[in-house]
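Weekly structure sync, notes
Attendees: PL, DS, HV (note-taker this week)

Item 1: Extracellular solute-binding protein
DS walked through the input record. Source organism listed as Streptomyces asiaticus subsp. ignotus. Sequence as pasted into the shared doc:
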Amino acid sequence: MAERTPRRRRRRLIAAAALATGVLTGVAACSPGPSGGSATSAKTSGPVSTDPAKAGKVTLTVWDQNTDPGANVSTEALNKAFMAKYPNVTIKRVSRSFADLKTTLKLALSSANPPDVVQANQGYPDMGAFVKAKLLQPVDRYAKAYGWDSSFPSQLLDLNRFSPDGKTWETGNLYGVSQTGEIIGVYYNKAKLKSLGLSVPTTLGGFETALAKAKASGLQPLSYGDADKSPGIHIFGVIQALVAGKPEVRKLVFDEGDAKWTDSGTLKAATTLRRWADKGYLGSGFNGKSKDQAVDSFGRGTSLFLLEGTWQSAVLAPKMKQNVGFTALSPAAGQPPLTQGGEGLAWSVTSKSKHPDVAGAYIDFLVNKNGMKVAASHGNLPALPPADYKPTPGTVDADILTRWKAVSEKDGLLPYLDYTTPTFYDTLTAAVQELTAGHLTPKASTTRLQSDYSSFQNSR
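Item 1 (cont.): predicted structure, written out as tokens:
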């Protein structure tokens, strides 16, 4: 393989998680990266009008994936407040599940009447592809006008940067900002855990012990449904973080060094997940069940654990009250927790928006202090938490904030694996489904991942 120019050194993801603590532990503050090139059209340059009231009558079409209860309610509340403040603006909201958004958004962006604002997933498969196709416009001028470039740490902004050709991630123009933070962790049923004589697991080994004891007692160990595909990324990613370690995962996702998806750490992760499936820890028919079904099942008390994102707290808390807890796992006793996470999908302005300044003002309305406060009030983990964000002790939201701090303070936040290449989401999700179904061996699944990774490396 020809020698490649290595991607610039990855800045720590700790800053993304540390936002919830109010402290950027071990990370020096630094200014945002370079703009990476001049604007491509009149829409991306010139003065910014920050007053939508002066825009005349406007219909702003917004596509999002905030279908989970907490995110949906906060989005609806903020949309209503924005229209009340600016009666001349009508927000036409189109909300899709994450899986549906991935399959329909590019077509919508390419249509004759594309939306004005969209949520774009970070990394090569979505944001990079949209930038390459000139479907998104840079928002650097809005970052300057509204102060996003100072309120958001550069490490968080960098996750939403791309070179204008869409080939290089984390550098160049800014293509959006995010409202929420998130990590993947383990929800647990407190009463059932106590009935089994178990304490809250803190390590991978302790978690596996609990899975085995639940299975032996006749209780379903884990609620899991992978019909939506993204749960497979989460469960595999958490296991990989714990058995392969953060240096290897970061090298793979950010294309640094000579790490391979067939290395022993990732192979061990695949072997572990296959073992869980073979032992019945994931239940039956999981590839035909949705994540919503899995969450509902756990909420009804049919299982001991649920491995999911912090965004599910708004679903579970009303059902389970203080009987649900949340934790993040460590590789071994005495070691800090490691898990996937970062920030929610970026709010972006489309390149063909007829009202880009109104779109920019709308995004600021979502991510300013009040927007973050509204998000937090509905059970979401805000990317920039208000100073008075203090969840009630004993609640799952309090657990989430505690674990978020524990992950951030020890640099334990790792990237989502689907960021890796333009095609990795499809490759990884299919490989995980076939692995857990017993149609691929662990070695064959990692070989498939490496093939996708190698093709991307050779194309750069």
